[in-house]
C-alpha cells in the first residue's frame, strides 16, 4: 500500500509518518519531505510525507491520486504559530549567524518562561510587524483550509490534537490497520519535537495577543474546523524545556550543522548589557560591519546616548556628541554633566565643527542618533553623507515611531523620537531606492551613499496620521529577518534591492513655528557689573505650554555675589510656577516665594490676577528679578549649580492685550 501524508510544518507530520509506517509493517520505503519532482516512480509499499508549503496544491492533488491512502494533517493555527516561533529560526543559516538576533530571542524566552503574561508574542523579533512568519503561517493555513474543502471526499482529514491524544480509531479504520501514537521516530528527526501536546497557545498568548491575533486567526480556525474558544490558561505555565532550553538546543545543533563555532547564549538572570531583550541599533551596525567588511565607523549621538558606541565592533571607531544645551531638562541635566566629566568637551561638536574636523577621513558607516528636532535633523542627514565613503551607509535612528505620544515636538521624559521620522520620510521621498527602515529599536533608517539627492527642500511636513496610514511607504519598512536575508550575500546591492518606488507621498508646508523669546540668567562677583560674558540664555516658545528651563553654571564659575533673572526680552505674559536653585547633586538650595512677590526686587514687571491665576507681565524689553539670596546660599553657588524655572509663556497677543489693559488701569488710577 502507498500512503501519502501531507501537512504544514510543525503540525506533527513526522510523528504521523513513522506511526503509519510502523502500522504498515514489512519495512515500507519512507520518503521524508522529498519534493514531488524527485519521487517518481513510487515503490508499491511506501509511506511518503510532503510539507504542504513546499508544493503547489494542484500538484499535491495530482500526485496524491497515485496513492491508495491520503491523509491531510491540520492543527490549531494558534498552536502552529507558537511552534513556528520557536522552531523556524533554526531553519535559516542567516539567522543562525546573527548573535544579536539569537540573544534577543533567548532572553525573551527566558522572561516569558518566568512570567508568561509579561511578554507579548509581538515582542519577539519574528513576530514584529511586518512579520514574514505570521504572514506565512496565515497563508499556509488558509491554503490548507481551501485544499481540505476541495478534496474532503478523497482525503482523510486528521487533526493534530486527535493524534497527540491517541484518538486514532477513525484513522485506523480508514487505513485498514491499527495505528499507534507512540511510534519510534528516526533520531535524525527527533529535534523537531517539542511538547508533543496541544493547547500550548493558552499558556503563550497574553490578553493583548488575543486582542491582536483573534481577527487574523479566527477565520482560519473556522475554516479548519476549530471552535472559537479563546480562554487562556489560569495561571499560565511554560517550562524551560519547552521554551528557552529547547531553543538553545536547536541553536547549538543548527550552528554545528552549518559549520559555525559554538555561541554562548545568556543564562536566566544574567547581569550586564547582554540582558537587553530587543534587537538594537548596535546589532544593525555590527551586522553591516561583518557582512560588508566595513572598517571605519563614526557615531554622532546625544550626549547621554553613547552606549551604542561600546557595542559596535569595528577596526576604527570615532564618537562625537551633539550639543544639547538648548534641549536640557530636569531629568537629564545631572546625567549630562556627569557624562561631560568623563568625556570632556572636545567631542561635543556642532554640525559645522563635525564636518570640518572629519573632512576627508572617509567613514564606511555613520550612526546618527538625533535630538529629534527639525530642521536640525534634516540639515544633519543631508550633510553627513559628505563624510561617508562612496557606497557607505548612514543609519538614522528613531525613524519608525509606534505611538503618536512619543512624536511630540518638545522633548518629553522617557521614550521620545520627536520629528525625526518626518525628516527621514522626506529624505526617502527624494531617494526612494536608496533608503529604507529596519523595524527594530524604534526604526533604524539606512541610507546608501550612492548618487543621493541631497539638495531637496526641507520645509515639507506631514502629520502622524498621514505617516501611520502609509507607514510602509514613508519608511520602506522591512523586518530584521528580511534585513538578515538581504545582507546574507555580502553584496550591498542586495540590501538595497527593492520593489518599485511607492506612489508619491503626501507632504505639506510646515506650519509656522511658534514665536520665541529668550530668558537669561546673569551672575556677578563682588564689585562687578552684570554682563553678557557672565550670562546664560535659553529660548522660550510662546505657545501656551509649560516649559522647564535649567540654567546650569558652567565650569569655572565661583564667587557669585548676586543673581539676576530676566524672564523675557520683550513684553510678555507668563504664568511663573517656580524658581529653584539646585545643587550639582540635585539638592534644593533655595526656592522663590511666589506669595510674597510684591516685596521682592522685580523691575519692569507687574503681577496680574486673571481668572484666579497670577500672571507675570513684563512691561518693557528688559524685565528683571534680583533675588535676595541668603549668604549661606551665595557661598555655595558655583559650577554645576542650576536655576530651574517652570513657566508657561502665553501667546504674544495675550501679552499685548494685558499690557494694554494694564496701561488703562494705570491711567485710571493716576486720575
How many runs of DSSP E, i.e. beta strands? 25
What is the CATH H-level superfamily of the largest domain?
A: P-loop containing nucleotide triphosphate hydrolases
| CATH architecture assignment name of the largest domain | 3-Layer(aba) Sandwich
Distance between the termini: 117 Å
Radius of gyration: 33 Å
CATH class of the largest domain: Alpha Beta
Class of secondary structure makeup: alpha/beta
Description:
The longest helix is centred in the first third of the chain and has 19 residues, at 132-150. The chain is elongated and about 110 Å long. The strands form six sheets. The chain has a seven-stranded mixed β-sheet with strand order 7-6-8-9-11-10-13, with helices on both faces. Strands 17, 19, 20, 22, 23 and 25 form a six-stranded antiparallel β-sheet that branches. Strands 2-3-1-4-5 form a five-stranded parallel β-sheet, with helices on both faces. The chain has 671 residues and is an alpha/beta fold. Mean pLDDT is 86; it is low at 185-195 and 271-275. Strand 19 (573-582) and strand 20 form a beta hairpin. It contains 23 helices and 25 strands. It has three domains: 2-242, P-loop containing nucleotide triphosphate hydrolases (Rossmann fold, 3-Layer(aba) Sandwich), CATH 3.40.50; 287-509, Rossmann fold; 516-670, no CATH class.
Amino acid at each position: 500500500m502507498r500512503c501519502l501524508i501531507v501537512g504544514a510544518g510543525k503540525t506533527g507530520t513526522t510523528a504521523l509518518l513513522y506511526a503509519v509506517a510502523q502500522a504498515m509493517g514489512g519495512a515500507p520505503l519512507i520518503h521524508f519531505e522529498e519534493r514531488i519532482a524527485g519521487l517518481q516512480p513510487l515503490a508499491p509499499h511506501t509511506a511518503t510525507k510532503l510539507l504542504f508549503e513546499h508544493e503547489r496544491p494542484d500538484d499535491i492533488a495530482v500526485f496524491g491520486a497515485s496513492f491508495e491512502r491520503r491523509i491531510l494533517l491540520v492543527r490549531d493555527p494558534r498552536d502552529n504559530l507558537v511552534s513556528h516561533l520557536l522552531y523556524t529560526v533554526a531553519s535559516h543559516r542567516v539567522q543562525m549567524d546573527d548573535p544579536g538576533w539569537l540573544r534577543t530571542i533567548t532572553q525573551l524566552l527566558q522572561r516569558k518562561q518566568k512570567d508568561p503574561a509579561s511578554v507579548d508574542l509581538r515582542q519577539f523579533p519574528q513576530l514584529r510587524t511586518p512579520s514574514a512568519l505570521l504572514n506565512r503561517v496565515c497563508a499556509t493555513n488558509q491554503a490548507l483550509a481551501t485544499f481540505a474543502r476541495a478534496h474532503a471526499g478523497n482525503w482523510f482529514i486528521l487533526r493534530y490534537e486527535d493524534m497527540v491524544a491517541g484518538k486514532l480509531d477513525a484513522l485506523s479504520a480508514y487505513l485498514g490497520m491499527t495505528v499507534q501514537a507512540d511510534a519510534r521516530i528516526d533520531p535524525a528527526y527527533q529535534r523537531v519535537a517539542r511538547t508533543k501536546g496541544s493547547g500550548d497557545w493558552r499558556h503563550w498568548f497574553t490578553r493583548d495577543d488575543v486582542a491582536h491575533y483573534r481577527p487574523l486567526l479566527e477565520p482560519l480556525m473556522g475554516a479548519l474546523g476549530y471552535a472559537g474558544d479563546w480562554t487562556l490558561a489560569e495561571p499560565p505555565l511554560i517550562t524551560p524545556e519547552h521554551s528557552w532550553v529547547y531553543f538553545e538546543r536547536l541553536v547549538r545543533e543548527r550552528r554545528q550543522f552549518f559549520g559555525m563555532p559554538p555561541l554562548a547564549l545568556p543564562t536566566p538572570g544574567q547581569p550586564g548589557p547582554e540582558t537587553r531583550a530587543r534587537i538594537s541599533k548596535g546589532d544593525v551596525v555590527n551586522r553591516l560591519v561583518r557582512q560588508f567588511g566595513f572598517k571605519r565607523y563614526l557615531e554622532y549621538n546625544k550626549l547621554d546616548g553613547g552606549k551604542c558606541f561600546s557595542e559596535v565592533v569595528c577596526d576604527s571607531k570615532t564618537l562625537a556628541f551633539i550639543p544639547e544645551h538648548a534641549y536640557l531638562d530636569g531629568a537629564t541635566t545631572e546625567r549630562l554633566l556627569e557624562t561631560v566629566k568623563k568625556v570632556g568637551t572636545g567631542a561635543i561638536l556642532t554640525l559645522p565643527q563635525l564636518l570640518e574636523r572629519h573632512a576627508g577621513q572617509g567613514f564606511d558607516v555613520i550612526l546618527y542618533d538625533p535630538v529629534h528636532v527639525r530642521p536640525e535633523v534634516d540639515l544633519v542627514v543631508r550633510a553627513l553623507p559628505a563624510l561617508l565613503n562612496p557606497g557607505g551607509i548612514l543609519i538614522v535612528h528613531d525613524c519608525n515611531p509606534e505611538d503618536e505620544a512619543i512624536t511630540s515636538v518638545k522633548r518629553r521624559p522617557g521614550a521620545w523620537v520627536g520629528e525625526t521620522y518626518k525628516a527621514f520620510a522626506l529624505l526617502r521621498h527624494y531617494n526612494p531606492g536608496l533608503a529604507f527602515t529596519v523595524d527594530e529599536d524604534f526604526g533604524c533608517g539606512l541610507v546608501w551613499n550612492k548618487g543621493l539627492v541631497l539638495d531637496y527642500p526641507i520645509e515639507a511636513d506631514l502629520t502622524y496620521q498621514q505617516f501611520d496610514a502609509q507607514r510602509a511607504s514613508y519608511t520602506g519598512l522591512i523586518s530584521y529577518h528580511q534585513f538578515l536575508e538581504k545582507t546574507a550575500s555580502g553584496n550591498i546591492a542586495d540590501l538595497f534591492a527593492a520593489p518599485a518606488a511607492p506612489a508619491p507621498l503626501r507632504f505639506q508646508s510646515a506650519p509656522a513655528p511658534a514665536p520665541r523669546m529668550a530668558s537669561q540668567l546673569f551672575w556677578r562677583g563682588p564689585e562687578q557689573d552684570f554682563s553678557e560674558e557672565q550670562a546664560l540664555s535659553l529660548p522660550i516658545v510662546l505657545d501656551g505650554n509649560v516649559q522647564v528651563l535649567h540654567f546650569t553654571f558652567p565650569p569655572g564659575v565661583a564667587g557669585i555675589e548676586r543673581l539676576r533673572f530676566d524672564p523675557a526680552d520683550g513684553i510678555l505674559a507668563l504664568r511663573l510656577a517656580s524658581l529653584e536653585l539646585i545643587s550639582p547633586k540635585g539638592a534644593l538650595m533655595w526656592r522663590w516665594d511666589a506669595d510674597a512677590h510684591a516685596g521682592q526686587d522685580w523691575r519692569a514687571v507687574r503681577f496680574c490676577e486673571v481668572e484666579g491665576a497670577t500672571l507675570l507681565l513684563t512691561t518693557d524689553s528688559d524685565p528683571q528679578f534680583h533675588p535676595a539670596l541668603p549668604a549661606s546660599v551665595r557661598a555655595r553657588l558655583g559650577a554645576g549649580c542650576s536655576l530651574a524655572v517652570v513657566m508657561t509663556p502665553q501667546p504674544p497677543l495675550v501679552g499685548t492685550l494685558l499690557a494694554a489693559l494694564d496701561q488703562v488701569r494705570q491711567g485710571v488710577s493716576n486720575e
